[in-house]
Design goal:
428 residues, alpha/beta, UDP-N-acetylmuramoyl-L-alanine:D-glutamate ligase, Protein-Tyrosine Phosphatase, Chain A, eight-stranded mixed sheet, globular
């Protein structure tokens, strides 16, 4: 099995869908020797901010000299983004080898698992074989019954911002969703949560910590001062120390602070210089990502109400002058009307498009919704063609928002990078 075949096999398991429960993945990991039990883990759940908190945590640990595994989802360009050590994606040969081992274990023991369960088991196997000092582990969906939650004693459990998303699976209130997220909190294991947590969610998280006998750290917002914001990132101070973060938006500052407190439960002596160096390297694709082309481009994969609000707030503060064009593709199983109601009032024109995945909302249906909000709406079903048209027709002082889905962002990000090279623009 080569890397391409391995990825094809993993994706073939998508047909088994989402099946909450730990029995199947536990059995598969048992047949693989329970590699997860050999790992020291930071476990991260939440609705928004999981990826950035995980990234910052892993960067701090790597900068501190530890061999650090990182498991995240979704990926933007390359499937191997999901499994990294010290910022390097898993090598193709290693991915093929771990998938092959997990495949043989599942087939020989007649274990039917979902795609996420399978790749989680393969990631545990890889991190164990590579003798990672620490692993930063992102929950896939929810927490209580997520495949990652077979781990027994995380070093720290982290709950990022909780809001409404996946309501058909996790519940229709913030409190119900927080209950599922807080399912990763283990007896006696410390927990950290987002400093601007929804009050309903915070109450549930506090209750879960009391029941588990776990300490809860909530970073204080009055210890945070945002010094400057721009399309290229944010400068802020926390507890009197100044940091530069190549991630845009106020919410990213609070995600970074959450990560700092999570790592400090493991490494209380982590110094300012280590933290500064780590945060400066904590770039991520498709999170208010800026491309300085003929016009300004902001690529953002946020897809729920909170993600939409972050995009709206950041654009309102940091984009001054010139028109705004929004190129949108959204998944049909998301609350796309609420997303559009939040983002599109910023836009002078909208181009509705459709990412090349079955779940994507039809471009025409998206355009019909957009027409209720914006007077200038067109539709171009092909995603790359839609972005190209937006850039070709934009004024020099215009800002183009490419937004609505990580699937969409992944499909068009390569085009934006190539266009940057052709225009002689730096990607820094």
């Amino acid at each position: 099995m080569n890397c391409t075949q391995a990825i094809q096999y993993v994706h073939s398991l998508e047909r088994f869908g989402i099946k909450p429960g730990l029995e199947r993945v536990s059995l598969l990991c048992e047949k693989l020797g329970n590699p997860q039990d050999k790992l020291k883990i930071i476990h991260v759940a939440g609705t928004n901010g999981k990826g950035s908190v995980c990234t910052v945590c892993s960067r701090i640990l790597t900068e501190s000299g530890f061999r650090t595994g990182l498991y995240t989802s979704p990926y933007v360009i390359d499937f191997r983004e999901r499994i990294q050590i010290d910022g390097e994606m898993i090598a193709p040969a290693d991915l093929a080898r771990c998938v092959d081992k997990a495949k043989r274990a599942s087939e020989e023991n007649n274990i039917t698992v979902t795609e996420f369960e399978f790749i989680t088991a393969a990631a545990f196997l890889y991190f164990s074989e590579m003798h990672c000092d620490y692993v930063v582990l992102e929950v896939g969906l929810g927490g209580r019954f997520d495949a990652t939650n077979i781990i027994k004693n995380p070093l720290v459990s982290v709950i990022t911002s909780v809001s409404l998303d996946h309501t058909g699976v996790l519940g229709d209130t913030v409190a119900k969703i927080a209950y599922e997220k807080a399912g990763i909190i283990k007896p006696g294991c410390p927990a950290v949560t987002y400093p601007k947590q929804n009050p309903e969610a915070l109450e549930v998280i506090e209750s879960a910590c009391r029941s588990a006998g776990s300490t809860l750290t909530v970073p204080q917002t009055d210890s945070v001062e945002i010094l400057s914001e721009s399309l290229r990132g944010t400068v802020f101070s926390y507890l009197g120390s100044e940091y530069s973060l190549p991630l845009a938006g106020e919410h990213m500052v609070y995600n970074a602070v959450t990560a700092i407190e999570a790592v400090k439960t493991i490494l209380p002596g982590a110094g300012d210089e280590t933290l500064r160096a780590a945060l400066k390297k904590s770039a991520m694709p498709a999170r208010l990502e800026f491309f300085d082309l003929k016009c300004s481009v902001i690529l953002d994969g946020g897809h729920n109400e909170e993600g939409a609000a972050a995009l709206r707030n950041f654009t309102g503060k940091c984009v001054t002058g010139g028109k705004i064009t929004a190129v949108c593709s959204i998944m049909s199983d998301k609350d796309y009307e609420k997303y559009l109601d939040t983002v599109l009032p910023l836009a002078d024109r909208v181009i509705a498009t459709q990412a090349d995945v079955p779940r994507a909302l039809d471009a025409h249906a998206l355009a019909e919704c957009a027409e209720k909000i914006c007077n200038d709406v067109s539709e171009i079903p092909d995603a790359v063609s839609a972005v190209k048209y937006a850039l070709d027709t934009a004024d020099d002082d215009e800002t183009v928002l490419v937004c609505g889905s990580f699937y969409f962002a992944g499909e068009v990000r390569g085009y934006l990078i190539e266009r940057s090279k052709k225009e002689g623009k730096s990607l820094d």
